[in-house]
Amino acid sequence: YRFFEPATKWQIQEISGKRFAITICEDIWEEQPCPATQKKMYKDFPLEKLKAQSPDYIINLSASPFSFTHPGERREVLATASKKYQCPVIYVNQQGGNTDLVFDGGSMVVNPKGNIVEQLPLFSEDIRIIDLQNLDTENKATPLPSHISMIHEALVSGIHDYFTKSGFSKAVLGLSGGIDSAVTAVLACRALGSENVTGILMPSQYSSDHSISDAIALAKNLGMRYEIIAIKDIYNSFEAGLNPHFEGTKPGIAEENIQARVRGTLLMSWSNKFGNILLNTSNKSEMAVGYGTLYGDMCGAISVLGDVYKTTVYELAQFINANQEVIPVNSIVKPPSAELRENQKDSDSLPEYDLLDSILEKYIEQNKSKDEIISEGYDATIVHRIIALVNNNEYKRYQAPPVIRVTSKAFGPGRRMPLVAKF
User: Fold this and answer.
1) What pLDDT band is residue 343 in, cutting at 50, 70 and 90?
2) Are 216 and 226 in contact (CB under 8 A)?
3) Strands, E, within 67-209: which ranges?
4) 259: exposed, middle or buried (C-beta count within 10 Å: 0-12, 13-18, 19+)?
5) Other Cβ atoms within 10 Å of 319 Cβ, number
6) Nearest to 132 by CA among 29, 19, 22
7) What is the pLDDT of residues 93-119, one digit of tens each?
8) Reduced to 3 states, what is the DSSP secondary structure of residue 287?
9) Residues 183/320, Cβ–Cβ less than 8 Å
């Protein structure tokens, strides 16, 4: 957050006898505090200075990135400003995805009563001609879509624009039969068209029959291409090469991760050969605690679910299946597992996702300390363990693909942390 100089006279433009105050993006966000200091954003609020110049209208030119709480917050900010300064606010927001950021549009006009009198759609370009002489009308605001609907649209928009703006049209991803890859596949098909998405099934000796059949059922439901490349023999060749050097040690995570890295290599090879962009399917819960393999399941050009907690992934799956079964029910209800060893479940090494995600959100989005979280009734041992996992796995996130942002605090440029530090 920066403290700007007071607004200058060039920000008032006179057109046809009317005076327009020109503001840029956060110039209008007087009441948004800085999370770290709880101070306001400006020492001298631009609208206070501009009001002294008697504008007839306020125009706000904005590039406001999406998070699922932001559209509602914007409405409140614009209503507050228009009523406080007794001046219509014309809010014009960017639309479309720029790598990790998605701009959701939603431009609107708010009259001095705080009523929304013109409203453009979210997540699509539109043009509206405004009659500035006829703004004293009742509120025309329509209810905002559900948070899960907006997250769905933001992710589809982010995928679509990442591909179109980089000049690519085809995507590839690994299909495991689990919920993360299933939701990612649906979003990709809706963003790019099913004919442009390929799913690669890579079963190992630990893959259940259901994992394979669920992945195939999903691909058929979506009308997308799928290929099966079994990795058992490839994995065995790695083991054979490493056995003389691993002799006398107990099999463990190193051997499990070979499977993930074999899959990552196969997916990257497909990407290189056919010019398909690889979509990463890791969710935010996994990225937060390091539950992923570098150069394995963390491969990809763009992370679709890296700002979506596991509990929200389940909500997305239910939203997708609201009218018909697109994602096989078994992919949703079965216990999540990486399937890197016999009978493996995520809950073997992680708390249940409801608990995990609740603590992660308080630590990451709400910036609460360990003691603050514990004071809310969470078990101290679990809180310390989860926060240690988050802090100790920054090196993995540093090497992860860009993450499409849908919350107030995504991993990446918006959350810069040192890889090694001592406090």
Assistant:
1) low
2) yes
3) 89-93, 95-98, 101-104, 108-110, 116-119, 171-174, 197-201
4) buried
5) 16
6) 19
7) 999 998 899 999 999 999 988 889 888
8) helix
9) yes
393 within 8 A of 364, measured Cβ to Cβ: no
**Residues with Cβ < 8 Å from 381, sequence gap 6 or more?**
none
Cα–Cα distance measured from residue 23 to residue 10, given in angstroms and rounded to the nearest whole number: 11
Q: Report DSSP letters for 222-257, one per residue.
A: HT-EEEE---HHHHHHHHHHHHHHHTTS---HHHHH
Residues with Cβ within 8 Å of residue 34, at least 6 apart in sequence: 1, 40, 41
What is the rounded CA–CA span in Å between residue 340 and residue 177? 14
What are all long-range contacts of 47-51, with beta carbons under 8 Å and residues at least 24 apart?
47/7, 47/21, 47/23, 47/81, 47/85, 49/6, 49/7, 50/7, 50/11, 50/12, 50/21, 50/23, 51/21, 51/85, 51/87
Where do runs of H (alpha helix) occur along 298-375? 310-320, 329-333, 353-364, 370-375
Q: How far apart are CA 215 and CA 174, in angstroms?
A: 10
- Is 200:227 a contact under the CB 8 Å cutoff? yes
- Sign of the CA dihedral 160, 164, 168, 169? positive
The whole-angstrom separation of Cα 102 and Cα 215 is 29
Q: Is 51 exposed, middle or buried (0-12, 13-18, 19+ CB in 10 A)?
A: middle
Nearest to 322 by CA among 121, 144, 71, 152: 152
Four-point Cα dihedral 60, 65, 68, 69, nearest 10: -50
Q: For residue 340, what pLDDT is reported?
A: 65
How deeply is 374 buried, as exposed, middle or buried, from its count of CB atoms within 10 A (0-12, 13-18, 19+)? middle
CA dist 359 → 36, 93, 313, 374 (Å): 19, 33, 17, 9
Tell me the pLDDT of the chain averaged across its residues: 87
Residues contacting 347, CB < 8 A, separation 6+: 335
Phi/psi for 107 (5° steps) reads -60, 155
- Band of residue 334 on the pLDDT scale cut at 50, 70, 90: confident
pLDDT tens figures, 153-208: 999 999 999 999 999 999 999 999 999 999 999 999 999 999 999 999 999 888 77
Contact 30, 7 (CB under 8 A): no
Sign of the C-alpha dihedral computed for residues 324, 328, 331 and 333 taken in this order = positive
Compute the distance between CA of residue 69 and CA of residue 166 in angstroms, rounded to an integer: 28
Helical (H) or strand (E) element with 210: helix 209-222
pTM attached to this predicted model: 0.88
Three-class secondary structure of residue 386 per DSSP: helix
